[in-house]
Amino acid sequence: xxxxxxxxxxxxxxxxxxxxxxxxxxxxxxxxxxxxxxxxxxxxxxxxxxxxxxxxxxxxxxxxxxxxxxxxxxxxxxxxxxxxxxxxxxxxxxxxxxxxxxxxxxxxxxxxxxxxxxxxxxxxxxxxxxxxxxxxxxxxxxxxxxxxxxxxxxxxxxxxxxxxxxxxxxxxxxxxxxxxxxxxxxxxxxxxxxxxxxxxxxxxxxxxxxxxxxxxxxxxxxxxxxxxxxxxxxxxxxxxxxxxxxxxxxxxxxxxxxxxxxxxxxxxxxxxxxxxxxxxxxxxxxxxxxxxxxxxx
Length: 297
Known about the structure:
Layout: H1 4-21, H2 32-35, H3 42-49, H4 57-62, H5 64-69, H6 72-85, E1 90-93, H7 100-112, E2 117-120, H8 121-136, H9 138-144, E3 150-151, E4 155-159, E5 162-166, E6 170-171, E7 175-182, H10 187-197, H11 199-212, E8 220-227, E9 234-238, H12 241-264, E10 287-290, E11 293-296
Helix pairs in contact: 6-8, 11-12
């Protein structure tokens, strides 16, 4: 059992280590995945900043905690991009689990080889099928294969004095494109998902980034949605101007809120006050899912 002095010293050391590892949001560029946290609350932005923002292969594949914690959806999306855009090798891990000495050695080797992602055998086969579906779609490939298209080229820029970093999936002479893997490429359902995940805000921010980099502002912004299950339907959608304008207004509000938080160095949660819990009985019914069955309550 540790004595009181040891416990106190251990606590002090832990505090020092936490302080040393703390990332001040004011010291790093913002990007869409960070900025959209301001739609929730500044505390979530602060928390997101504590995750590694380094895009290097060594950081993504070599960091023990980060590599293990990368969600399957992110690994899968990165691999589909790599297969479709031919931007890097995907390593295939055949081991039983992503842990232990075998996994650590494989991960280190993949990073040394410059691989962009690591998948298991099942994930790799599925990602290849999804990428092949995109390549079979003439409309999608007309946008992705134009001679002047730049793929996954990072843009470092500034907005309202804040350093920003953006990486559109593809940029043509007059347009930008984002590629999304999804459960459903049904246009109606995908629009609902996109609204919830702020895809229109992402497109609006990327359009600003392209213009800030000295290029003409893209006249069109597209999103390519591809399903992750057979027959891997692909839908190409164009953001209408009113929707992009809405996204632009929303991202500006997020940015202004971020700048206020940075000036005050304050990162509040949703509310510091007691909030009323009230349900509108005349509103649309709630839908809950129980054992796969959707039930209105």
